[in-house]
């Protein structure tokens, strides 16, 4: 028995590596999330550089704050944390990876109207491989998502293939050269829907997003999660500081001391790139880019 997904939706996710569930989160909760975004924007006013809470656009001005990412928003916002732990988010996740779910990370990506930064093609799995690939990301669409405002795009079915090359000049660059991999941009599928919808994409599916050149914002909160029996392999992100810290990330169900080992491809994201920071900074090491860079 499933909680919210149909067998057809489960089969589609297994085959294509993504889902869109429209109008999943009620308007009242969405209003609370938007109020939190306004608060983050107020915090960014006067900032001259990114810090451990807020990642600024390259075009940011202290008098005209421009945020491209709020880091770990669930630790900075009670409404975001409460939503992450609610059935609005966790019910479809349990239908896909089982009842025991652990948090990997969260982020609020903000593509403001007219200048929102692109994210180059990548697989989340390239940054943090696990012992099995019941790993996914839930994206909350805070704004109506259309082709014009830089929606998340995926390459269907790529979660069933290899870990692609995310290196450049001998360093992990967190981005894939589509041409070198023989992948056609025309095969990309944009994940669109009205505000309050959620997208779900598999941790191994190739995805990215273009600049927002529209007159409308494009903002998404990502909740990245995995099955509780998926244990980290040597990767780009630091390992848990302790078992207690790892288990403190349980969102529902029961933790385990028995990792489930699956035959999944792994590529180590090392050596680390010369430029450290968010994915936007890491991807600056990439040579050929798929998306135009904002000037």
TrEMBL record:
InterPro entries: Phytyl_CoA_dOase-like
Domain of life: Bacteria
GO MF term set: 2-oxoglutarate-dependent dioxygenase activity; iron ion binding
Transmembrane parts of this sequence: none
UniProt keywords, alphabetically: Dioxygenase, Oxidoreductase
Keyword Oxidoreductase part of the UniProt annotation: yes
Name of the molecule in the record: Phytanoyl-CoA dioxygenase family protein
Organism: Psychromarinibacter sediminicola
Source lineage: Bacteria, Pseudomonadati, Pseudomonadota, Alphaproteobacteria, Rhodobacterales
